[in-house]
Amino acid sequence: MLKTKKKESRMGASYSLKKELSLIPGYLLLVTWVGFTAVILIWVVAASLSTPADIFKGTIFEFSSGIHFENYSRAWVSSNVSVFFLNSLLYAAVSCAFLILICAPYSYVLQRFNFPGAKVIKTALAATTGVPVIMVIIPLYMIVAQAGLLTNRIVLIALFVATKIPYTTIFLMAYFENISRSYEEAAAIDGCRPTKTFWRIVFPMAQGGLVTVTIFNFINIWNEYFLSLMFVNSDKLRPVALGLFSMINGMQYSGDWSGLFASVIIVFLPTFILYLLLSKYIVGGLTGGVKG
Predict the structure, then answer these.
(1) Is the pLDDT confidence value at 125 over 50?
(2) With pLDDT > 90 as the criterion, what percentage of the chain qualifies?
(3) How far is the first Cα of the chain from the last one, in angstroms, to the nearest whole number?
(4) Per residue in 167-193, pLDDT tens?
(5) 221 has a pLDDT exceeding 90
(6) pLDDT tens across 246-287, in order?
(7) How confident is the model at residue 57 (pLDDT cuts 50, 70, 90)?
(8) Contact 21, 34 (CB under 8 A)
(9) CA gyration radius for the chain?
(10) Cβ-contact 96, 214 below 8 angstroms
(11) What does DSSP assign to residue 80?
(12) N or C: which end of the chain has fewer CB within 10 A?
C-alpha cells in the first residue's frame, strides 16, 4: 500500500509539473503585457512632471529642469480639465445609479418569475447587446435634434442609461440565478411580500454583482466618446474623453505637451483607484452569486 501511495504521489507531482509547464506561454504573454503597460504608464507619469523641451529631447527621466508638479494645477485650471472631470463624474455616477435602480429589479423579475413574453424579452436583450451603437446613432440624433434637446445633460445621461440596460440586465440575471431561492421561500413563509423580499434580502446579497457591473458601467461611461461627440456641442458639458481630444487638437497652437500628459493622468486616476479599492468585489462578482 505504501508503494502505491508513493507511486500515486509521483504521478500527481509529474502531472502538476506538466500542467504548470503548459501554462508558461500564457504567463510569459501576461508578464510581457503587464510590463509593456507599466513602461507606458511610467513614461506618461514622467512626461507629466517634465517640460515640453525635455519631452522632445527624450530626457524626461533625467529631470534636468526639475520636477514640475505645477503641470497638474495648470491642466486642472487652465486647460478646463476640472470641468471635463466633473462632467464625466456627474454623468457616470448618475447613470450608474439609475442603471442599478432600473436593472436590478428588472433582471430579478426576468430570472425568478415565469410570465408570458419573458422568453421573448430575454432573447431581445441578448440580441440587443450585439447591436453597435453606431447603427442607431443617426435615428437617435434625428429624434433628439427635432425635439430641440441637443447639448442637454439629461438627454446624454438618458442615452448612457439606455445603451447600458441590456448588458447590465443580462449580467445581473446571471448573478441572481446563483442566489438560492431558499431565502425567498423562508421570507414568504414569514409573510414577506416579493417586493420587500427583493429589496431587504436578495438585493443586499447581490452586492458583489451590483458593485462589479457598476464598476464596468462607470468605466465605460467615463471613457465614452462617440455619444458625447454627437450630442454635446458645448465646452461646459464635455466629458473627459471629448475634452482630451479637443486638447490634443489644441496642442498645435499651445504646445503644452506636459500639461496634456498631466491631464491624462488626472483622467486615468478615478478608474485606477476604483480597481484598487474594489478589486475583491470584481473577482467575487465575476465568480457568481451566493449558493445555499
Answers:
(1) yes
(2) 28
(3) 39
(4) 999 999 988 988 888 888 888 888 888
(5) yes
(6) 887 777 667 788 888 998 899 888 888 888 887 776 666 555
(7) confident
(8) no
(9) 25
(10) yes
(11) -
(12) N
**Residue 229 burial by Cβ neighbours in a 10 Å radius (0-12, 13-18, 19+):** middle
The kind and range of the H/E element at 248 are helix 240-254
Looking at residue 135, the DSSP 8-state letter turns out to be G
Q: Judge whether 103 and 212 are in contact, CB under 8 Å.
A: no
* Residues found in the chain: 292
State how far the Cα of 168 lies from the Cα of 213, in Å rounded to an integer. 7
Task: Report DSSP letters for 145-175, one per residue.
Answer: HHTT--S-HHHHHHHHHHHHHHHHHHHHHHH
Nine cell digits for residue 162: 439606455
- Position 114 scores a pLDDT of 87
d(CA 214, CA 235): 27
- What is d(CA 253, CA 31) in angstroms, rounded to the nearest whole number? 39
Cβ proximity of 233 and 220 under 8 Å: no
